[in-house]
Structures are given as C-alpha cells and as structure tokens.
C-alpha cells in the first residue's frame, strides 16, 4: 500500500507499506526516522509517542493507513534547526537522560503538556507522563526537567 | 490483508455486509496489540476514524448519544458534568496517549469483562446502538454482553453509538489495580443514583464472565431510600443499609482466580468499593458536594 503523509512539516511517501503495520514501523523502517522508539509495541511504554494531527498518541497503536493524509510530528520535529526546544534542552540540563530509550516519547508528551498547560503542578506532570515508562532514571530528574522546561517556556 | 477507509457510515456498513470478517479499527488500542503480536491476522482493516456519524456526541431530550468513535479524552473533557460515571471510568483507562485514541465503541466490541466503560454504562442503563445494511437497533447494554469477549453484535453489524440519560443524580466509578494508571482492573464498580425515577444503577467489572449489574443490590437500596422517604428528605445512610448493599454487590459477583487477583479477593474488594462509592454518592446527594477517591 502506498502512503502519503506529512511528517515534521514535510510531505512523505511510503511505498509498499504492509496494511497491518503500525505508524511507528512506517516512521522508523520506511521513512528513516528512528527517533521514535519501539520498546513494547503494545501501548504500555509511551516511547513511540508522536503527535498525530496535534494529538499525542502511541504510534505503535496507529495502523499505517490511519495516518494517510494526516500530519505527524515526531521528536525529530521538536527542535528548530540546531536550536533544541526548551523541553529537550531541559532534559539535557537536568540530567533526565540515561540510556535515552524513553526520552523521545517523554519529550513529545511533555511538550504537549506544556503547550496545553503552561504551569503544570507536580500531580499534573505525573498524570500526563503516566503512560511513559523509564527504566533508568527513577523519574525525579524527569520531573525536574519538565518543571524547568515550563519555567523556561514561560519567560521565553 | 487490505486496508479500507470508510468515508461514511453507509460506506462502512456496505463493506461490513460484504465482508463480515473484516476488522473495523477505531483507536487501534486493542486491535493493533493483537496484530503487532501476530495474535490475529484479519483479512482486512476497515478504518472508522473518518466516519462522521461516529465521531461526535449530541444531546436530545435529556439523552446523550455518544458516537462509537469518540475517544475517552473527549468524554472526560466534554461530558464530565452530563455523565460523571462514564467520565470517571474513562479517566482510569490506560494513559493519556491511549485515552486520546481509545473509544467506547472499541471497548464494547472487545467486550472484555474488564472493560472500564462497561460498569458505568450498566449503572446508567445505557443502550448500545448497532447498525447494519438491514437497519439500526438499540439494545440495553446488559443484554449486549453474552460471554467472555462475546457480544450480541451480528457479524454484519457495527456499533454506532451508546445512548445514556443525562445524569439526574450523583454517579461514581472505582477500580482496584496495582497502579494509578495503565492497569487492567482487578475489579471495578460503578453506582448511579437516579432520583428522577427513584432507582439505583450498578455495574461490576472483572467480576464475572461478562460485565454485570447487581440487581438485588440496586433494588434493595432503592427500596430502602423510598420506604424511608430519603429521596425527598435525604438523611445519613444507616450503616446497616450500606453494609447490606456491599454484601449484595459482592454476592452478585462470580469472579475467577487469575494473575491479577483471586476470586475471594475480588468478591471482598467489590464489597468495599460498593460501600465506599455508595457513601460518596449519598454524601453528594444529601449535601450537593462531590467527593472522590
Ligand atoms: C496500554 C493499554 C492499556 C489499556 N488499559 C485499559 C484500561 O485501563 N481499561 C480498559 O477498559 N481498556 C484498556 N485498554 C484496552 C483498550 O484501550 C480499550 O478497550 C479501548 O476502548 C479500545 O478502543 P479502540 O477504539 O482503541 O478499539 P480498537 O482497537 O480500534 O478496536 C477494538 C475491537 O473493536 C472492534 N471495533 C472497534 N470499533 C468498532 C465499531 N464501531 N463497531 C464494531 N466493532 C468495532 C475492532 O474490530 C476490534 O475488534 C488498554 C489498552 C492498552 C494498549
Ligand atoms: S512502543 Fe508504543 S507504547 Fe511502547
Ligand atoms: S533513560 Fe533509560 S529508560 Fe529512561
């Protein structure tokens, strides 16, 4: 099946996508965008989180054909050229990245949180990130990073 | 496998009639897990996410129709006041990303005893709207579930909507699990007070082969409230009534032992959930102030 979709603002075409494959597979294996991670393929870990028409979703739960004609934004599309988004910079500065496998999904999900809720409480941060598993950090540095990103976005 | 995108309900129903084995896909949060792990290989996928008739909710004469494709996230943000029980249940499903995609239509079609929408739909006496090229019918949700992951939907039918009366009294949903997010319930319970008709509704999840009501508990509580004149003159619920309600809810369960919990734990926990939630709903009914866990 041929698929046309917009990814990070640019039109993309994937030829020969299998009808049963996921948007995550299309992004990683057909479009050369390995930022979104595949850690469970069952919606449990959130490491594949992308925006689908501005709504964060687990891309492993979206059938390829459901993305036809839609706009996808992945972790690769958060930075403005070489300038990292405040969420990305805050993860770096807070030491919220260890192995990094969970990071792309957390970045997209945290990005959405701060877009919708510029001053999230700790409870709101935890709630928003409840579907993103991290096996390394113990989450405290991730909490720091999201708080820092919200502060930075508020002054910028 | 092929992939068909339905542009309208007629289009979707025509396809389902011709190819009853095709798998409809809405949020994909049940179906894609099964496909990714090669548990199923349907002959094709029928994408419902572009069908306008499934995509919205509406209200008419105090009854709310929720299109089968409305995701949990919208039920939570838009229907919390109209349908508090279903909104609370939706709020406990999975994670924000899954709630942005997953739908009540998909939850019903999967018909798992642990589906979190089901207890709330049962407590509200919801009706499931089913459609095929042969026509449209509505079924009380209690008659929809026929077995573990089995429903009364015919092979050529799609679930098009659920219909629920707008809440006329307090409603609650509570669920036992190992975490606050991303858990399949060990057991779940929903209760709704319907003062307009002096009735009580209940729904039990992960408590039997199908989601079910605790009919005796409903009738007992409604009878007590009526005979004591408490619908019109709310006073504190006697402890004996609360206790008996919990016992009757636990007695309505026919749970199993599995990896998530034992049958006896489930029965016990359902009684606890029933006592707590009925206390919260009654407090709200008598004081006008909402309580939650
Ligand atoms: C990580 C994770 C956590 C989860 N946690 C919970 C939880 O806490 N509580 C809970 O209840 N569920 C949970 N689920 C299960 C799932 O999210 C829900 O059952 C959801 O409601 C399914 O809806 P969907 O739109 O994604 O369905 P889909 O996956 O699109 O479809 C599910 C089934 O329904 C059929 N179908 C879909 N729409 C229709 C229709 N309109 N007519 C006829 N058939 C249809 C499909 O063919 C398929 O068989 C979880 C899933 C995941 C991946
Ligand atoms: S890979 Fe999609 S949620 Fe884990
Ligand atoms: S940094 Fe390793 S999983 Fe989160």
In short:
The complex is a heterodimer of chains A (156) and B (293). Chain A is of the alpha+beta class and 156 residues long. Helices cover 35% and strands 13% of the residues of chain A.
Strand content of chain A: 5-15%
Terminal CA distance of chain B = 46 Å
By DSSP, the count of extended strands of chain B is 13
Main sheet of chain A: which strands, in order across? 2-1-5-3-4
What is the chain-wise order of helices and strands of chain B?
EHEHEEEHHHHHEEHEEEEEEHHH
The fold-level CATH name of the domain at 171-287 in chain B is Enolase-like, domain 1
Poorly predicted spans of chain B: none
**What kind of oligomer do you see?**
heterodimer
In CATH terms, the superfamily of the largest domain in chain A is Beta-grasp domain
CATH-derived topology of the largest domain in chain A: Ubiquitin-like (UB roll)
* Basic shape of chain A: globular
Organism (chain B): Prauserella halophila
Protein name (chain B): FAD binding domain-containing protein
InterPro entries (chain B): CO_DH_flav_C, CO_DH_flav_C_dom_sf, Diverse_Substr_Oxidored, FAD-bd_PCMH, FAD-bd_PCMH-like_sf, FAD-bd_PCMH_sub1, FAD-bd_PCMH_sub2, Mopterin_DH_FAD-bd
Keywords (chain B): FAD, Flavoprotein, Oxidoreductase
């Amino acid at each position: 099946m041929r698929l046309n979709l917009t990814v990070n603002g640019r039109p993309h075409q994937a030829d020969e996508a299998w009808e049963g494959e996921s948007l995550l597979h299309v992004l990683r294996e057909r479009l050369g965008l390995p930022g979104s991670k595949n850690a469970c393929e069952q919606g449990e870990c959130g490491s594949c989180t992308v925006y689908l028409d501005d709504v964060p979703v687990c891309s492993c739960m979206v059938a390829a054909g459901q993305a036809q004609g839609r706009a996808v934004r992945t972790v690769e599309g958060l930075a403005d050229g070489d300038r990292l988004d405040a969420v990305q910079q805050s993860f770096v500065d807070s030491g919220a990245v260890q192995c990094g496998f969970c990071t792309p999904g957390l970045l997209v999900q945290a990005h959405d949180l701060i877009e919708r809720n510029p001053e999230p409480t700790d409870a709101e941060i935890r709630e928003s990130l409840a579907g993103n598993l991290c096996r390394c950090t113990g989450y405290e540095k991730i909490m720091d990073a999201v708080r820092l990103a919200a502060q930075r976005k508020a002054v910028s | 496998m092929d992939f068909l995108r339905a542009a309208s309900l007629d289009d979707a129903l025509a396809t389902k009639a011709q190819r009853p084995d095709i798998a409809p896909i809405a949020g994909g949060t049940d179906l894609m897990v099964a496909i990714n792990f090669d548990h199923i290989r349907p002959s094709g996928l029928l994408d419902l996410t572009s069908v306008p008739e499934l995509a919205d909710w509406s209200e008419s004469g105090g009854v709310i129709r929720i299109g089968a494709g409305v995701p949990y996230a919208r039920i939570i943000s838009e229907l919390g006041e109209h349908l508090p029980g279903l909104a609370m249940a939706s709020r406990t499903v999975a994670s924000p990303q899954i709630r942005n995609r997953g739908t009540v239509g998909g939850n019903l079609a999967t018909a798992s005893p642990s589906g979190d929408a089901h207890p709330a739909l049962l407590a509200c006496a919801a009706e499931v709207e089913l459609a095929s090229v042969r026509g449209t019918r509505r079924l009380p949700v209690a008659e929809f579930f026929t077995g573990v992951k089995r429903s009364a939907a015919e092979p050529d039918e799609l679930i098009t909507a659920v219909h629920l009366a707008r809440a006329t009294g307090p409603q609650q949903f509570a669920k036992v699990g190992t975490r606050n997010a991303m858990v399949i319930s060990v057991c779940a319970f929903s209760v709704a007070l319907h003062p307009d008709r002096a009735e009580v509704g209940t729904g039990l999840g992960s408590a039997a082969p199908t989601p079910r009501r605790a009919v005796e508990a409903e009738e007992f509580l409604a009878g007590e409230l009526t005979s004591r004149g408490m619908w019109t003159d709310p006073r504190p619920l006697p402890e004996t009534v609360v206790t008996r309600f919990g016992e009757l809810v636990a007695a309505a369960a026919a749970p199993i032992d599995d990896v998530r919990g034992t049958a006896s734990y489930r029965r016990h926990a359902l009684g606890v959930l029933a006592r707590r939630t009925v206390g919260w709903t009654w407090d709200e009914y008598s004081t006008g102030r909402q309580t939650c866990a």
